[in-house]
DNA sequence: GTAACTTAGTTTTTTCTTTTTACTAAGTGG
DNA sequence: CCACTTAGTAAAAAGAAAAAACTAAGTTAC
């Protein structure tokens, strides 16, 4: 969301100060254990400036001091870490089959989570229930003493940038929903940050943002569930989400993969979702909406028709991944979503297709890493929480 | 190339000063005729700061003062413009069929251009000839009195970010070419900026960067010629090119559009280029490499086979554009390249496909603007020059 | 015509943040 | 134990933008 459509920020001294504070905090966040001297080197600031900045970040409770580092012939520096006891963010995902909530620390550690199945319902009902669960989560004992920075909401559909409107959620049957407004009817804003973003984009953000050590320059998260979506985040200094003009960036489920192919829900023909998605697999195998897809397929895995369907779907997913490779070319690809649980018969063809074809153009010896997340339950909710933190650290608010 | 892999820049006072100078220059560049007061409002700086910044930019020759604005009940402000007499950038495109060179002013006005056909040749030969032509261009009388900021080179293939290596140029048969090094064997660096980038990405950059007035938040340029490539540029403050991890971002010609389809040059099956590209159309219609594609087709436009081929290719292009819409979702799409000259029989199906299908997901009343560039001869070269200027204004060099 | 008002831009002083410089702290190695 | 190295702090200096006061140059009301 970030909003703030002002193209240029004021370049005053306060801005400079905050920029340096945010730089320091960001460096420690990425590589825990840094000393003041390390920061001075990496940020190209003087020791004095870093010392002052660290001082104020310690006082505000963002950082805490750790052990003395090993010395290499001089006074040892003192390690700095994110303070894990002071601030927390909430994140929630509104999914097709339920609500997932997390509370996590600035390093991404999950303090508490909730997972509730909820049948398909109206935006109003979902918002009311989510508000209740958020209240519950906030009062959880494991959050005692934490100052809550804000709440991020992940939704299964394109969210218009700047507007905080969920444009459409095909699998929920929602359209043009101002979900945050609905939520605030039951839960006060309370001067904290509220972020609302697409589910796959949130997941992508969290997967990159909470990484420490060697951080990929860019990352694509593919969310394969009832529908198929993706999100891309990149940028070295501040991680930026590719949202697109109308929030449609990453809607790979509706890229054409077979011109003149089957009709898709969206009305076009040959969309990727007609080949690979929860709903297309259900349709091909005659599995009811009420049944759990995975549970229904598990006992039928030996049937040739099931195997063929899964292989075809997997190959289509492989082509989709390859297409992302050739349009966005991320440094890393992460695959999550409920379809991952279909396992080898579905995943192997996908991975094989990408593995065999990704080096067609470039004979690059180092293939792009592709990681499969077995349990992606909390990924999107956690990523929504991540965006709250990023908003605080990089945003123009007064919290830092 | 931008390079400078340092993740964080020093936040000292000089940095702040340069940031504000660059902000001022950027604002005037985007909306010529701004007054100091306008800038102060938009940049959220005080009149005094803007006054000082403008002063130094006037002295350095970046800006010049224009007419008095109309007054609305007070002292009229003085319009500021880019100085078009002082600085210039060179840009060149190495294409499959020849070399194109331009010299242009900071506003993008072309001072001089060269266009030379060159048969397919080695990187060394091309570099030597390009060096000669650059020399010629630099000595052109219309560049008298101009200070040259640098030179940008656009190449028909993926360029690795940070490395200045052309990874591969399929239609030239080149691989792993350090083109700038070859060029510098014949032409000294001379303390100016050198930029090397993919051709479609360069074009995209130039199309966005030289725009004034209402500037789209993001733009995709599609280059449809012998092969098909694209480039995306976005970002409000400083325009950022999506390069991708290995420079493969935008290689839409090798996205799979028909799994199990025809074999592509790259070895994979069903790539978009097997359906729409200069080479696939030649193959379908039996047109020799030596003939000019457009000239060969023109007299045969009434043949049903030609019409069918062009329509099929156009529809594939339409699907490609729709796929970009659903993966990148740019605010604007620009279509250029030699295939544009095929005209209606090719373009109409493409535009119709995109027009009819782009609102499937969102019933957005305002469709994404799609502009066709009739004569894209100089677009990539000009865009390469644009990157030089952007490097000066936003980069960390001392020129500002 | 002129005084009141409005807006543009500059000059001067003040404020604030970083750097510079000098210093203290705390380890290693001969 | 003493030189040496590196980490971090403190006080003085430099430099940038802000704030306030000012001049400049138009319009509007009467």
Strand-helix topology:
2 copies of one chain form a homodimer.
Chain A: H1 13-30, H2 36-43, H3 47-60, E1 63-68, E2 78-82, E3 87-94, E4 98-104, E5 110-117, H4 123-138, E6 147-155, E7 159-160, E8 165-169, E9 174-177, H5 179-184, E10 193-198, H6 199-209, E11 218-224, E12 228-234, E13 240-241, H7 278-285, H8 293-297, H9 304-327, E14 332-336, H10 344-357, E15 370-372, H11 379-394
Parallel strand pairs in A: 3-6, 6-10, 11-14, 14-15
Antiparallel strand pairs in A: 1-2, 3-4, 4-5, 7-8, 8-9, 11-12, 12-13
Helix pairs in contact in A: 1-3, 2-3, 6-11, 9-10
The structure holds a DNA duplex (30 and 30 nucleotides).
Characterise this structure.
2 copies of one chain form a homodimer. The first copy, chain A, has 400 residues and is α/β, with parallel strands linked by helices. Chain A has 3 domains: 70 residues, Winged helix-like DNA-binding domain superfamily/Winged helix DNA-binding domain (Arc Repressor Mutant, subunit A); 135 residues, Nucleotidyltransferase, domain 5; 160 residues, Nucleotidyltransferase, domain 5. Helix content of chain A is 35%, strand content 21%. The first copy, chain A, contains 11 helices and 15 strands. In chain A, the strands form 4 sheets. A 5-stranded mixed beta sheet of chain A has the order 5-4-3-6-10, sandwiched between helices. A 5-stranded mixed beta sheet of chain A has the order 13-12-11-14-15, covered by helices on one side. In chain A, strands 7-8-9 form a 3-stranded antiparallel beta sheet, with no helix packed on it. In chain A, strand 8 and strand 9 form a beta hairpin. In chain A, helix 1 crosses helix 3 and helix 2 packs across helix 3. The first copy, chain A, is globular. The N terminus of chain A is likely disordered. Chain A binds a DNA duplex (30 and 30 nucleotides) through helix 1, helix 2 and helix 3.
């Amino acid at each position: 969301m970030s909003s703030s459509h002002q193209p240029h920020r004021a370049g005053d001294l306060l801005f400079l100060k905050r920029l340096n504070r945010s730089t320091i905090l960001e460096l420690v966040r990425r590589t825990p254990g840094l000393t003041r001297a390390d920061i001075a080197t990496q940020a190209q600031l003087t020791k004095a400036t870093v010392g002052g900045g660290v001082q104020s970040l310690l006082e505000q409770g963002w950082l805490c001091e750790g052990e003395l580092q090993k010395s290499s012939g001089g006074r040892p520096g003192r390690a700095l870490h994110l303070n894990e006891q002071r601030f927390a963010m909430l994140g929630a995902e509104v999914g097709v089959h339920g609500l997932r909530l997390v509370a996590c620390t600035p390093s991404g550690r999950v303090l508490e989570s909730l997972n509730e199945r909820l049948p398909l319902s109206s935006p109003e009902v979902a918002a009311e229930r989510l508000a209740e669960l958020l209240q519950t989560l906030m009062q959880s004992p494991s959050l005692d003493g934490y100052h809550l920075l804000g709440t991020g909401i992940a939704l299964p559909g394109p969210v218009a940038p700047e507007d905080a409107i969920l444009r459409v959620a095909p699998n929920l049957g929602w359209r043009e929903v101002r979900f945050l407004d609905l939520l605030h009817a039951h839960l006060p804003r309370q001067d904290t940050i509220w972020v609302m973003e697409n589910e796959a984009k949130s997941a992508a953000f969290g997967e990159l943002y909470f990484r420490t050590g060697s951080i990929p320059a860019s990352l694509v998260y593919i969310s394969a569930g009832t529908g198929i979506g993706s999100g891309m985040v990149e940028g070295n200094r501040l991680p930026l989400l590719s949202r697109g003009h109308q929030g449609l960036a990453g809607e790979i489920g509706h890229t054409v993969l077979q011109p003149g192919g089957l009709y898709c829900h969206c009305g076009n023909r040959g969309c990727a979702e007609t080949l690979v998605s929860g709903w297309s697999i259900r349709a091909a195998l005659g599995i009811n909406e009420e049944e759990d897809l995975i549970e229904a397929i598990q006992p039928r895995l030996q049937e040739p028709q099931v195997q063929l369907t899964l292989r075809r779907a997997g190959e289509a997913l492989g082509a989709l991944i390859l297409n992302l490779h050739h349009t966005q070319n991320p440094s890393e690809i992460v695959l999550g979503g409920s379809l991952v649980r279909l396992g080898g018969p579905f995943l192997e063809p996908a991975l094989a297709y990408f593995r065999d074809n990704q080096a067609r153009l470039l004979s690059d010896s180092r293939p792009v890493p592709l990681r499969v997340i077995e349990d992606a339950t909390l990924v999107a909710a956690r990523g929504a929480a991540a965006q709250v933190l990023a908003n605080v650290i990089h945003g123009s608010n007064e919290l830092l």
